[in-house]
Amino acid sequence: AQSVTQLGSHVSVSEGALVLLRCNYSSSVPPYLFWYVQYPNQGLQLLLKYTSAATLVKGINGFEAEFKKSETSFHLTKPSAHMSDAAEYFCAINSGYALNFGKGTSLLVTP
Amino acid sequence: KAGVTQTPRYLIKTRGQQVTLSCSPISGHRSVSWYQQTPGQGLQFLFEYFSETQRNKGNFPGRFSGRQFSNSRSEMNVSTLELGDSALYLCASSLVGLVTQETQYFGPGTRLLVL
Fold it and tell me: Which of A3, A83, A84, B51 lies 20 to 30 Å from B59 when distance is taken between CA atoms?
């Protein structure tokens, strides 16, 4: 079964600092991976997705993620954090009929 | 295009009651999935509907049910509510489903509180 694990339930960065949110996957077939963001009292918004076309995927709001098969990872990064990036971030993998989500990482951005 | 809409946004019920939540997918999308989000269990897949048929189902008791109409709108019903059913219920739509590696687009959710 396909699954993802997010390392770190809480991450705190200073405004302007690098954001790195970690996600490792487990899959017996080529994976299709996603990062979603959830702001308070809202649904999930797609940040980016990996579908094997390119290992470096660029998403919205300056986020990007790199697929590394050798490390079974799909970490999310942003060069410079903004206060508005404070939210819950979810990594997910397509199981074939549903998304299997990680537990989420809450990103705190401090001034 | 309008996004996925869900009604109501907030709901308070008491144990033993039943509840119906509604979801309207993005125009043209025929696959609708439902997820439950709780602090303890995270995001869990409930079921998926396509062309008015339940195509896939997660590991939830039979108290959780759903249906889809000919216009692709979907409803989910929870009968005999329990305190543990308090959650954010998210609806997601895609053109024909994740079997084609599509993207699912999520609605804002319905927050259900069971007292």
Answer: B51
